[in-house]
Design goal:
The protein is of the alpha/beta class. It folds into two domains: 155 residues, Rossmann fold (3-Layer(aba) Sandwich), CATH 3.40.50; 129 residues, 3-Layer(aba) Sandwich (Rossmann fold). Helix 3 runs parallel beside helix 4 and helix 7 packs across helix 11. The radius of gyration is 19 Å and the shape is globular. The two termini are 37 Å apart.
């Protein structure tokens, strides 16, 4: 997905002289073309993400549309105070790009996992929060975030769902599989596990709807409520802590909309810090958020 983001950003820089990229000492290979073409609109802040955010915000307040870029937690949680007090409070045109959502950097341990970011950043007023599921979505949503302006968070995953290219609209959930026996809401590349689980259950005669929640904020409550009302058995799937993330957003939407469901299950990282390392697929399975875990949760809901 990061290549798709960089391609979109490079195109935007050619179209809009306000584009500025502030990098946290990461990604020289993938950023080579941007740096070569726009050397005066690139700043390497080094391993100093608080400064990176302050530079980006200061530039935005003088007319730039700034982008910050680093691994998982580093452009988000390490500089949360700067995001809150500088970027969001001033409604600055700063898009925070984290490469490595969830367990993408699984071999590097919990310091490099991004498993609280969605919950924390969606709580910041003015912040738009987006987690694309495929490279083509990352490309389209980058351009749409730029057009929208204001504070934004783009969470890039190393995995992808493998959906065929289509049209994605910021703030509008996509129903990618029809069904009325149950619904799975998923965000990010782990959407691929939701689709695989739906395939497994289809063999047993269950029609499971799958909804791609690529935009966490603003949240598409209408689509979520309609799907939950029609399907009644609800599972949410996120490569993230279940506290305050996608599952919480879906539950809030359903309860506030008066939607009564037969069962509701949040799948993601339980309220814990992972103590093991491994690749992304291994950690998903180990912490109960792969296709088998999703299918088992729905089997339980169906009484199987």
């Amino acid at each position: 997905m990061r290549n798709a983001f960089v391609r979109a950003l490079t195109e935007l820089a050619a179209e809009d002289p306000r584009v500025l990229l502030v990098n946290g000492d990461l990604g020289f290979g993938v950023l080579t073309d941007f740096i070569a073409r726009f050397p005066n609109r690139y700043v390497n802040a080094g391993v100093a993400e608080q400064n990176m955010t302050a530079i980006a915000c200061g530039a935005a307040l003088t007319g730039a549309h700034s982008y910050t870029y680093s691994i998982g937690n580093f452009p988000t949680l390490r500089c949360l105070e700067q995001l809150r007090n500088d970027v969001c409070y001033h409604r600055a045109d700063v898009t925070v790009v984290a490469v490595g959502g969830g367990f993408s950097y699984g071999q590097l341990g919990m310091s490099h996992f991004a498993t609280e970011d969605l919950a924390i950043l969606r709580a910041l007023p003015e912040m738009t929060v987006v987690a694309p599921s495929d490279p083509w979505q990352a490309y389209q949503l980058t351009r749409q975030l730029h057009a929208r302006g204001g504070p934004a968070y783009l969470r890039i995953d190393k995995a992808s769902a493998g959906q065929p290219e289509g049209v994605v609209e910021l703030g509008k959930a996509r129903t990618v599989r029809d069904g009325d026996d149950a619904v799975i809401f998923a965000t990010g590349g782990i959407l691929g596990e939701a689709l695989a689980a739906a395939d497994m259950l289809a063999v047993r005669g269950k029609r499971v709807r799958v909804v791609d929640i690529h935009t966490i904020k603003p949240f598409d409550t209408d689509t979520v409520r309609a799907a939950a009302r029609a399907c009644r058995h609800v599972v949410t799937l996120e490569e993230h802590n279940v506290v305050g993330g996608l599952g919480g957003a879906v539950a809030e939407a359903c309860l506030e909309g008066g939607v009564a469901v037969a069962s509701f299950r949040r799948l993601g990282l339980s309220d814990t810090y992972p103590e093991i390392v491994g690749d992304q697929a291994y950690l998903r399975a180990r912490y109960g958020m792969d296709r088998h875990a999703v299918a088992a949760a729905l089997d339980e809901a169906f009484g199987g």
